[in-house]
Amino acid sequence: DNCKKDRACFSTPANCEPSGSSSCFFASTRGVNGNSDNLTFELSGDSDGYIAVGLSQDKKEGDGDTVYSCVNENQVAKFIRATLNNGVLTPDKT
């Protein structure tokens, strides 16, 4: 509801309505308490294995990008942060 008001929203397909459809992927981000240096993300989508979002500091994908994933591992939700380089994800040790 607050897309373009207090958060940026991204979806596939473009007209995705995550509260009413399980067949789309949706991400939103906003500053915590209005602080653009501290962000919160919301991800949703229909997936058996994982859902993820990648962040890049440039226009090239896979050149040191950070990927945040929510993973279903044997019915246990895990949060994984990884670095993407040349198509290879390397999970952080934290």
Outline the fold blueprint.
Elements: E1 8-12, E2 25-32, E3 35-44, E4 50-55, E5 63-73, E6 76-85, E7 88-91
Antiparallel strand pairs: 1-2, 2-3, 4-5, 5-6, 6-7
Using DSSP, what is the number of strands?
7
| Sequence of secondary-structure elements | EEEEEEE
Strand content: over 45%
Could you list the spans in which at least 5 consecutive residues all have pLDDT below 50? none
Give the termini distance in whole angstroms: 33 Å
Structural class assignment: mainly beta
Strand order of the largest sheet: 4-5-6-7
Question: Percentage of helical residues?
Answer: under 10%
Number of helices: 0
Protein name: DOMON domain-containing protein
List the keywords.
94 residues; mainly beta; four-stranded antiparallel β-sheet; three-stranded antiparallel β-sheet; DOMON domain-containing protein; FRRS1L
Task: Please characterize this protein's 3D structure.
- This protein is an all-beta fold and 94 residues long.
- It is built from no helices and seven strands.
- It has strands at 8-12, 25-32, 35-44, 50-55, 63-73, 76-85, 88-91.
- A hairpin with a 2-residue loop joins strand 5 (63-73) and strand 6 (76-85).
- The mean pLDDT is 86.
